[in-house]
Design brief:
The protein contains 6 helices and no strands. By secondary structure, the chain is mostly helical. It has one domain.
Length: about 140
């Protein structure tokens, strides 16, 4: 068996990888969502500085915190992952599309890479260690 087939040929490793991927993708959003609560006024001002109404901030916080927890738990994973993919692309375009600035260039492509990770998650699903799987198995019973 070669190394590239190690995960795909082992259901347990595949499901553990899906769980770790969900956690890795979502932890960033949960933490930044909580940070936006702590620094609410500054975040609203930053959003307004790029033309995004500060009144959208509660929705952003809700998506980041609640959506992040949903992805970690594997609840409505495919739909939530699609929402995060779109959010990541929109955020890249609104806040980091200054490609002549090296930092913003890297932040832009970081968001695009995160969107790609969420699209892969949307395509593959949450895996066995998820509430999606638990709900599915419960409905079959």
């Amino acid at each position: 068996m070669n190394l590239t087939n190690l995960i795909s040929s082992n259901d347990t490793l595949s499901n553990i990888s899906a769980l770790l991927a969900r956690f890795g993708l979502s932890a960033l959003f949960v933490l930044t969502g909580l940070s936006k609560i702590e620094y609410y006024d500054a975040t609203a001002q930053y959003m307004a500085s790029v033309g995004v109404p500060g009144m959208l901030l509660p929705l952003v916080i809700l998506l980041e915190v609640l959506g992040g927890i949903m992805i970690i738990a594997g609840l409505f994973t495919r739909l939530t992952a699609l929402a995060f993919a779109g959010f990541s692309v929109i955020s890249a375009l609104l806040f980091h599309f200054q490609l002549d600035d090296q930092t913003q260039f890297l932040m832009f492509y970081k968001n695009i890479a995160i969107a790609g990770g969420f699209l892969a998650l949307a395509a593959s699903g949450a895996g066995k260690f998820s509430l999606d799987q638990w709900l599915l198995s419960r409905n079959k019973a």
